[in-house]
TrEMBL record:
GO terms for biological process: protein export from nucleus. This is Protein kinase domain-containing protein. Pfam families: Pkinase. PANTHER family: SERINE/THREONINE-PROTEIN KINASE FRAY2, SERINE_THREONINE-PROTEIN KINASE FRAY2. Residues 11-315 form the Protein kinase domain. PROSITE patterns: PROTEIN_KINASE_DOM. It comes from the Eukaryota. It comes from Euphydryas editha (Edith's checkerspot). Belongs to the protein kinase superfamily. STE Ser/Thr protein kinase family. STE20 subfamily. GO terms for molecular function: ATP binding; protein kinase activity; protein serine/threonine kinase activator activity. GO terms for cellular component: serine/threonine protein kinase complex.
Length: 363
């Protein structure tokens, strides 16, 4: 049991700023157990909408318990700042890993392990009548034990309304600071018509995430929002890039065309050339291509469920002895930075805090 007492925690360094500057994540140690944790510090101020989203994230995480979903440990409030404690996933997010170490995408076996574990999380969520609505690389966290956990539950929606299960939902997930989440959303969710959407929209998002993992780039990232919406509704979709789908020679315009509107790899001539060579000399398995095609079906009724996908041939390559951290060995775990001035100043500040015992934040 983790106590909601800030004095039991030692902050060690800043990991990242997130949620459009609304929050900062610190690594820390829970001193009674000498256990590494992540502490997310939210600057709530007076924005009731943001406060509601944060509360939704915490309440959902408290309700849902699964090995592949980031758990909630405890939280405490000081003034208009909220501190939320979670286990430290010390390899960071898949997006961090792609940006820093694998711009050309992760090895196929690493993709298989991560996708399997995210599917296990989605299978559980869907059985609990939840739709995640924000499956993306920045919300999939890894650690050196080989654990894969899905986060980002502030966008999740329950299909249970007043005790009755709804067949479809119609509302958009809450917007993030730059509307980036739209790139992962399914066509039926974006359409906002009377048909609505269900848990199969998560399967489409998993397909976009699949291409993000394998290619290193975020699909649709360079396409204007309105064009991205139109292309998705028409059935255009990202694809895995290798020697079969991306043959040499191609110019930059042809590369974007092969990727169905956007490769996501940027317009830098040097960057395009380097990635072109990486894609052209690799061959991804037929099973991987088939999985991607199944996930990204335009018609949600043609997409397999999470349970069905876990039996896909693509995942048969995973052996019990396969260990994810060894497959991405160039990624180093997060280490405390004793010279992190921001963490030191905050630690000094919180050592003088009197944590509120009663608060409007009733979790």
């Amino acid at each position: 049991m983790f106590n909601p007492d800030i004095n039991d925690y030692q902050l060690t360094s800043i990991i990242a700023e997130c949620c459009g500057g609304v929050a900062v994540v610190y690594s820390g140690v829970y001193k009674p157990y000498n256990q590494n944790v992540a502490i997310k510090r939210y600057f709530v101020d007076k924005d009731k909408e943001k406060a509601s989203l944060i509360q939704q994230d915490i309440l959902t995480r408290k309700e849902l318990q699964h090995p592949n979903i980031l758990p909630y440990l405890t939280s405490f409030v000081y003034g208009r700042e909220l501190y939320v404690v979670s286990p430290l996933m010390n390899l960071g997010s898949c997006r961090d890993i792609l940006d820093r170490h694998f711009q050309e995408g992760l090895p196929e076996l690493a993709c298989a392990i991560i996708l399997r574990d995210v599917l296990l999380a989605l299978q559980y969520l869907h059985k609990q009548f939840y739709i995640h609505r924000s499956v993306r690389a920045s919300h999939v966290l890894l650690d050196t034990n080989g654990t894969v956990r899905l986060s980002g539950l502030r966008s999740a929606a329950s299909m249970m309304v007043r005790g009755r299960r709804q067949k479809q939902l119609h509302s958009l997930p809450p917007p993030d600071h730059d509307n980036a989440n739209l790139m992962w959303l399914s066509p039926e969710l974006l359409e906002q018509n009377l048909k609505g959407y269900d848990e199969q929209s998560d399967i489409y998002s998993l397909g976009v995430f699949c291409c993000e993992l394998a290619n290193g780039a975020v699909p649709f990232s360079e396409v204007p929002t309105t064009l991205m919406f139109t292309e998705k509704v028409r059935g255009s979709r990202p694809q895995l890039l290798d020697c079969s789908s991306f043959p040499e020679p191609l110019d930059d315009g042809e590369m974007k065309s092969m990727y169905n509107t956007d490769s996501g790899v940027g317009d830098s001539a040097e960057g395009v050339s380097r990635l072109r060579a990486a894609y052209a000399r690799r061959k991804l398995s037929d099973a991987f291509h088939h999985l991607s095609d199944q996930l990204l079906q335009r018609d949600p009724e043609k997409r397999p469920s999470a349970t069905q996908l876990l039996n896909h041939l693509f995942f048969k390559q995973i052996r019990r002895t396969d260990f994810l951290p060894s497959l991405i060995g160039r990624v180093k775990p997060i280490k405390p930075d004793p010279d992190d001035i921001s963490a030191l100043l905050l630690q000094e500040k919180i050592s003088e805090m009197e944590i509120e015992k009663t608060t409007e934040w009733d979790f």
